[in-house]
Design goal:
The protein is α/β, with parallel strands linked by helices and 244 residues long. The protein is 41% helix and 25% strand. The protein folds into 2 domains: 117 residues, 3-Layer(aba) Sandwich (D-Maltodextrin-Binding Protein, domain 2); 95 residues, D-Maltodextrin-Binding Protein, domain 2 (3-Layer(aba) Sandwich). Strand 1, helix 2 and strand 2 form a beta-alpha-beta unit.
Length: 244
């Protein structure tokens, strides 16, 4: 095969670089904390309910999703600073309101208090306070709700879900405030038993959100795609698959 003329090589290289840049511009990072059944880690048997929903919305909007599982605080910083990242399963709290572009509601999550196996349920905030320290996952929107109820941070203990499960089992916290879909499986995985669930104490809408540098037209396309997915029943099908 004859060699290409040297004068053609710069043009071919430029074309390849432009194509690569164009492809990169179509990638949107989909970020979430690790939450079993909601946002699973890469390599697990399923991506998780919100990763499936968010990825499909991004694809339908004409972009390529790239999943990144990060602790909430890191994910929030990255999404705020970058023009091609969104965060999902994200509560719209007063502290976050002005920092993010709120793209669309994904679902509603019920929060309740969990007690260690074999103990009485905590059905109210007052019962949880009487039981001792309240455990909350680090970065959780539940912190905002507790602050609105006037709860001092000294009454709280924060850590990731596996550590919270161990602390609840050991009696180092009196209760844990969270969602069944994430905490039940973690507690069972860490302790071999199921926790005691109290009644729902509040419900919160979860959102897909971006930072202020994220293009408004792209956000609108993703929101429209997610709305179509809801109308078609796609979102309900995915939630049903994960037991919601």
């Amino acid at each position: 095969m004859a060699a290409l003329p040297h004068r053609l090589l710069p043009g071919l290289l430029l074309t390849a670089c432009l194509a690569q840049a164009a492809e990169s511009s179509r990638v949107i990072d989909l970020e979430c904390d690790y939450l079993p059944n909601i946002c699973n880690r890469p390599g697990e048997s399923s991506p998780g309910m919100m990763i499936e929903i968010g990825s499909e919305a991004i694809r339908r909007a004409g972009f390529m999703p790239r999943t990144k599982i990060r602790p909430w605080n890191r994910a929030m910083r990255e999404v705020i600073d970058r023009p091609n990242a969104v965060i999902i399963y994200f509560a719209r709290t007063p502290e976050r309101e002005a920092l993010f572009r709120w793209i669309a509601i994904t679902n509603t999550t019920d929060f309740r208090f969990f007690s260690k196996d074999g103990s009485a349920p905590c059905n109210t905030l007052q019962q949880a306070l009487a039981a001792g320290l309240i455990g909350v996952r680090s970065g959780s929107s539940a912190l905002s709700w507790l602050a609105q109820q006037g709860i001092d941070s000294r009454r709280l203990e924060q850590s990731q879900l596996p550590e919270m499960a161990k602390m609840l089992k050991a009696g180092r916290i009196g209760s844990f405030l969270g969602a069944s879909i994430t905490f039940r499986s973690i507690y069972q995985q860490e302790t071999g038993t199921l926790p005691v669930e109290g009644k729902v104490v509040y419900s919160s809408q979860s959102w897909m959100a971006s930072g202020p540098r994220f293009p408004a037209d792209t956000a609108a396309r993703i929101a429209a795609a997610l709305n179509r997915m809801k109308q078609e029943g796609f979102v309900d099908q995915v939630m049903h698959k994960y037991g919601r």
